[in-house]
Amino acid sequence: MTLQDVGKNTHRPRRAIRLAGLCLVAMLLILIGTGIYIVGLPVPTYDQVRATYRSSYITLLDRDGAVLERVRHDYRDRRDNWTPLADISPALTSAVLQSEDRRFYSHPGVDVLALGGAVRDRITRNSVRGSSTLTMQLAGMLHTSDGRAGRRTLAQKTQQMVRALAMELHWTKPQILETYLNLVPWRGELSGITAAARSLFGKHPVGLDSREAAILAAMLRSPNASPAVISRRACGILKAQSQAQYCDHLAGIAQYHLNHTTSVLQDDPFSASHFARRRLTLKLPQQERVNTTIDGALQRKVQTILSRVVHEIRHTHANDAAAVVLDNRTGSILAYVGSSGDLATARYVDNVAAMRQAGSTLKPFLYAQALEQRRITAASLIDDSAVNLPTGNGLYVPQNYDKQFGGWVSARTALASSLNIPAVRLLVMVTPDVFHQRLRQLGLPLLESGDYYGYSLALGSADVTLLSLTNAYRALANGGMYSQVNWGVGAAPPASRIMGEEAAWLVGDILSDRQARARTFGLDSALSTPFWTAVKTGTSKDMRDNWTVGWSDQYTVGVWVGNSTGASMRQVSGVTGAGPAWHDIMRYLHQRHASQPAVKPAGLTQRNITFENNLEAARTEYFLPGTEMSRVALAASAASPVSARMVISSPADGTIIALDPDIPAPNQRLQLLATTPAGTAQTTVRWYVDGRFLSDANPFAWYPVPGSHVIEARDGNDQMQDRVRVNIRGAKLRARLEQQP
Predict the structure, then answer these.
(1) How far is CA 505 from the centre of its chain?
(2) CA 303/CA 313 separation, integer angstroms
(3) pLDDT at residue 484 greater than cutoff 90
């Protein structure tokens, strides 16, 4: 070996050492650079993630801050409230760590041992094991660009590991675990541990046992796997935790819970579901927790009252009810119950917002308008007798609820006793179009014109909602000042004057007068309270809807009873249907303080009045300026209200009858009936048709003959008392009048 060869051999180790040193320096620089990059990498903080988390539900709070209702508003996935780690069962956290990341508390975000094992398995083609830590999975959830759906590429996996290392520098292990459990998808639309625990097992996360925790942990790798696969994985987790005894019957348990998911929990509040959905449909600011004006205790009490009342009257085919309580001063909704709950035929129908025929509940607004126009006073006499009004569709023949007539009655008695005929006569004076405009000003959602409803508008042929009707009554409680319902957002809606203060007060005084309503309701009924209230009832056509609406010095309460399907009830009136519920709600509202009547406006004059022929008892009455009187008497041209007066109740004047040749003649007789103004049958009647005597029976069934006829009712002295004209069309049933039996 030459000296030159020896030199060469000496330099080779030096070069290797130098090269190794350079590699180490390069690696060190790479590590330092990577560390600097990781440290400077922007990572969302725990507080930021927590602040931006949004549940799929909006929680409504009552006016005292208690939870009132939870309503789902986001249907992309189902996320429940964020649950702190301290409120999650230790059994679940243990099962999740056993399944997903056994060295969670020892690695810095990347588990090198698990990563090496995954590489070895891929090279040897053994079963592929997961290498993603909880931190890496969480980093992927927070950065959706990493390709969360499906397998990730090597570059995406590298980015995920870098972000996981960076996250571990800024987050604590408990924060990572808590956030992971609240964001991880479980099964189907379920996202987060709270939604999974409540929907699959009907309990909060803190109550999960070992079996349930193992089933949930087994879902993480493949959330939508079959129950058999999930139960097998869950059993493996339990065995790894030395809890193999819980594997017994695990397959059946998993099968049951995975196939019987629920969207609600038994302790979820359902105090105001209809109000919550109505509130969220309005174009009002929304947030995760919404403060409302609802009084939680009152809301639950109203629900109880409605359920009890409906249960008591179910024999009348009444199955549904609704109620609203408004604060007179602010217009705030204090209670909003849209159905009678489990007793309802359609419990999810909001009967507070449903359009239904108003019945007699519109009469107070008609009387207030007539009083304002000085067409009547509270003492004015109105004829409560049969009336036939020609319309474009034929004759309109209104009747009172009891099918009787009272003759001449005062406006006070007519309104308080809810007589139909006087109301129709008033509308003839006010006109349907003018009355329609007033109802629209009061916020009632009338969809047609006044002419469309015609004279039937006086009896509530228009459809309204319980909420709008109750709010219109609140205008009476506030002396004629109307404002929209206050939904609890921003300042209270501004008020404007719709009715005169004097007229509104006078209507309230009439509706609080027990003596005035005794004719129809008696002195002691559900409408009577031990403190001052004003109240009105209403029943729609065919007994489909029953209303009671009234107010005290602080509250306005509206109650509806009926059927969501629109089916008719049987033998239900205001004092037996909605009345008892209204009464009990008012009693509850004023259990600590009695309601006081409003102060009489200065513009009203108080007078002691008497009635001619003692038509009504002497009393104290109130008058608008310029309408005062002390004695009430009939005009000279008015018919005398004595029992001898005779009117033809059937048929109505101008009646057109079409005969059918296919119907047997005995079934097509026309009833002739003469009554007194009070509605009782006249005892002595002589019937004439076209001047020819027909019969002295009352009522009498006449075989009609085609043609135009004049029917007369005469007394025992053969003096004509009343007559009507009828037109008979169609087949000829009898050739001559002489053939009448």
Answers:
(1) 31
(2) 16
(3) yes
Token pair 């009936």 in the structure block, residue: 673
Report how far residue 240's alpha carbon sits from residue 263's, in angstroms, rounded to the nearest whole number. 32
> Do 333 and 487 contact (CB within 8 A), yes or no?
yes
- The string of DSSP letters for 677-695 reads TTSPBPSS-EEEETTEEEE
Question: For residues 481 and 497, is the Cβ–Cβ distance under 8 A?
Answer: yes
Of the candidate ranges 48-62, 317-331, 360-374, the one whose mean pLDDT is the lowest: 48-62
Torsion of CA 200, 203, 206, 210, to 10 degrees: -50
Length reported for the chain: 741
Q: How far is CA 223 from the centre of its chain?
A: 37
φ/ψ bin of 481: left (φ > 0), alpha (ψ from -120 to 50), beta (otherwise): beta
- Model confidence at 121, in pLDDT bands (50, 70, 90)? low
Given a cut of 70, is residue 9 above it in pLDDT? Answer: no
In sequence order, what DSSP letters do the residues of 389-416 get, joined into one string?
EEETTEEE----TTS---EEEEHHHHHH
User: Is the CB of residue 441 less than 8 Å from the CB of residue 483?
Assistant: no
What is the Cα–Cα distance from 428 to 108, expressed in whole angstroms?
88
Residue 29 in this model has a pLDDT that exceeds 90: no
**Token digits of residue 367:** 């009387």
DSSP label of 270: B
Nearest to 470 by CA among 560, 544, 584: 560
Alpha-carbon distances, residue 3 vs 7, 8, 535 (angstroms): 6, 9, 126
Q: Which residue has the tokens 């129709």?
A: 424
Query: Could you tell me the pLDDT band of residue 680, with boundaries at 50, 70 and 90?
Result: low
How far apart CA 645 and CA 129 sit, in angstroms, is: 103
Whether the per-residue pLDDT at 641 is higher than 60: the answer is no
CA dist., res. 586 & res. 533, Å (int): 9
Q: Which two tokens stand for residue 409?
A: 């009655």
Token readout for 516 is 């005035």
Helices assigned H by DSSP within 331-387: 363-372
C-alpha R_g of the chain: 41
What's the CA gap between 235 and 214, in Å, rounded? 7
Two structure tokens written together for 677: 């103004």
C-alpha to C-alpha distance for 193 and 200, rounded to whole angstroms: 10
Phi, psi (5° rounding) for residue 650? -145, 130
Q: How confident is the model at residue 466 (pLDDT cuts 50, 70, 90)?
A: very high
What is residue 710's predicted lDDT score, i.e. its pLDDT?
93
Work out the burial of residue 69: count CB atoms within 10 Å of its CB; fewer than 13 is exposed, 13-18 middle, 19 or more buried.
Answer: buried
**Span 453-468, average pLDDT:** 94
Sign of the dihedral defined by the CA atoms of residues 414, 420, 421, 423, in that order: positive
| 723 vs 725: CA distance, rounded Å | 7
